[in-house]
Amino acid sequence: MADQQKVKSVPVLPWMRNPIDVSLFEECTLSLLPCLDPRLNEALQNMGISSLFPVQVAVWQETIGPGGFERDLCVNSPTGSGKTLAYALPIVQALSNRAVKCLRALIVLPTRDLALQVKEVFDKIAPAVGLSVGLAVGQSSIADEISQLIKRPKLEAGICYDPEDFSLDLRSSVDILVATPGRLMDHINSTEGFTLEHLCYLVVDETDRLLREAYQSWLPTVLQLTRFSDEGFFPCAHTFRPSLFGSLKTIRRSGVERGFKGKSYPRLVKMVLSATLTQDPSKLAQLDLHHPLLLTTGKMRYQLPGKLESYELVCESKLKPLYLVALLQNLGGEKCIVFTSSVESTHRLCTLLNFFHDLPFKVQEYSGLQRQAVRSKTLRRFREGEIQVLVSSDAMTRGMDVEGVRSIINYDMPMYIKTYIHRAGRTARAGQTGRCFTLLRKDEPYVQLGSSFAVSVGCAANELCPKLG
Ligand SMILES: Nc1ncnc2c1ncn2[C@@H]1O[C@H](COP(=O)(O)OP(=O)(O)OP(=O)(O)O)[C@@H](O)[C@H]1O
After folding, report:
1. Is this complex scored with an ipTM above 0.90?
2. What is the rounded CA–CA span in Å between residue 109 and residue 218?
3. Is 81 in the pocket of ligand 1 (CB under 6 A)?
4. Mind telling me which InterPro entries this protein's record contains (predicted)?
């Protein structure tokens, strides 16, 4: 495992050598945030937000503030530090004065549950300034999704319409779209009236995960469809019906200074984010970033949340289930996620735990083996507190934000540092405290931290599991 944990030595791109250090930023109360639209201020207050977190202030400065969206942003900031609002707020503010409705911001996430979570954040702020948010994740049938995303003209009975004219009148019902790559590609390939030609903002959240998997070449396709050719046309426009707003080619931000390599075409602003952002030049090259700016937290490559405590529990392999039960009992029924190494062991462990009839908490599994509808229902029940212990494969590892999760248990040691960071990051979010326990066999080494990562103290098993100690 030590070999797998070795941090690959890749040459760091020159622009990554002088990042903006987010940890030098202070929280900023909304009343002091320059240029914040009062309607958004009110929407944020309604969400219980009275100040912005450091990463949100740093991104605001580079977008709405003096930075003015001049550079593409790469944000590497710990789990739970508020990256979603860091991009959602500037995008909504920037679009708040738009005159014509068309699809201008696209947010891509790797999973449906994550996309739903991010849409909820946009739903809380975008309507305040008259913007609509759509979802393309395959939660409903494609026909339902199309009817949410594309507005069709009302046809009058008795009049014969030319199909060509009819398709010219299709327009977007949404300003902002939150999507998973698969469904996005379905709409790109086959939804009449769906166009990316007015796109101003592209967000690739959980970038390292999305770049790892090609998903039908969604990224090159999106970049291709949003790029002007020298002739001023979109290269693939012939494959799509022209839209009503086909003539409004200047909707996107334009200006010579925003062009690239001397060209003056309007530029698509990109924001890419992760708690474990890749430094791999070949991966980053896929994003075709414009004059990128790195925002990162502190000197370490990866950082755990400040108030996370990490513990290792060493026990004999055959006693692991008993240690787990004792630990869960000690946690007193508070919300907790138990991570295992595979979908099969998730199922086995959950079944085993449910054999203990007198446990004072409810246990359910959440894994990629289950149907999406089952997973979403389990997640809702976990959020609402009907289930206290979620046994999960790595389907729950990234991005999921569930209030009240105070403990994470690695029943199986994660193979990679990145996995450890994302799993542990399901707790200690938004400045809260949290604990991450890792069960280890006697001969099993703890995650190799290397110099890229910091973790707090461990403690002996019998301190946490006195019943077994
Ligand atoms: N300014 C704020 N004030 C209070 N709470 C906030 C603020 N910004 C975000 N939050 C809350 O912080 C939590 C974490 O935010 P978010 O999910 O955006 O983190 P993240 O950095 O994207 O984490 P991950 O890397 O795990 O995806 C959420 O519950 C969110 O509602």
Report:
1. yes
2. 12
3. yes
4. DEAD/DEAH_box_helicase_dom (IPR011545), Helicase_ATP-bd (IPR014001), Helicase_C-like (IPR001650), P-loop_NTPase (IPR027417)
